[in-house]
Amino acid sequence: MKIPSTTLNNGVEMPLLGLGVHAPKNISEVQQAVEWALEAGCRLIDTATAYNNEREVADAIRESGIPRSDIFITTKVWNDDQGYTRTLRAFNRSLERLRLDVIDLYLIHWPIKEHRHETWRALEKIYADGRARAIGVSNHYPAHIDELLTEARIIPAINQVEFSPYSYLPEVITYCRDKNIQPEGYAPMVRGKKRDDPKLIALAEKYGKSTYQMLVRWSIQHGVVTIPKSVKRERIQENFNVLDFSISDEDMTLMDTFYDNTRVADDPRTIA
């Protein structure tokens, strides 16, 4: 079954489901995980400079034999590289490591106050030069984006934030949609922290699915691009086997109430 896609605000098509490759304990696992994901039908790979695995992603894509044009690749500029000139240099290094001429999506990883505008100006140049098909931000909440838009000439195509029922802030998603920014979520499975939640287990049993599949499906049904991370073949296959069922409106509403601010990353609301 083909993975559905969404159309970004500049007309670029992006899959709704992909693989996150946030730095695992063993860097050697990355290439194999990406190869398994591509075998499972994945066509969206999300990496970052900070994960230190862009070369492994490139190796996996080369080994897969899948045309480059069929794979959507995201990477991000890390905090230490922010600022206009440094961001341009960091982007060039990412291109080199990924063995690419063009990246599908380039993101600002975190909102670093003293560099926000200059970093975004660098992304706008990268986009204008045709070296990124889309640009966006990560871990930005409405106050950060409002500030960015006071000087930005281009509205971000994507805002990637932590997104699960346990960190669900509907006002953030509504804000993005009102600004025509596609929301994308990472850590949909909360790195296993909620696998024993009896509320989630009961729903999974009702649908005959795993708790992880319920969490991935919940994200997709919210229209949020989601990038579950795994380096295990069976789990990767399971994560992509979520297109043969739907969660009812009633149960989606129920899952929306699971919020308890459980997170695997910092809360952007604490960043001025």
TrEMBL record:
Substrate binds at H109. InterPro entries: AKR (IPR020471), Aldo/ket_reductase_CS (IPR018170), NAD(P)_OxRdtase_dom_sf (IPR036812), NADP_OxRdtase_dom (IPR023210). The record marks K76 as: Lowers pKa of active site Tyr. PROSITE patterns: ALDOKETO_REDUCTASE_3. The keyword Repeat does not apply. The keyword Oxidoreductase applies. Keywords: NADP, Oxidoreductase. Residues 23-259 form the NADP-dependent oxidoreductase domain. GO terms for molecular function: oxidoreductase activity, acting on the CH-OH group of donors, NAD or NADP as acceptor. It comes from the Bacteria. The active site is at Y51. Belongs to the aldo/keto reductase family. This is Aldo/keto reductase. It comes from Spirosoma endophyticum.
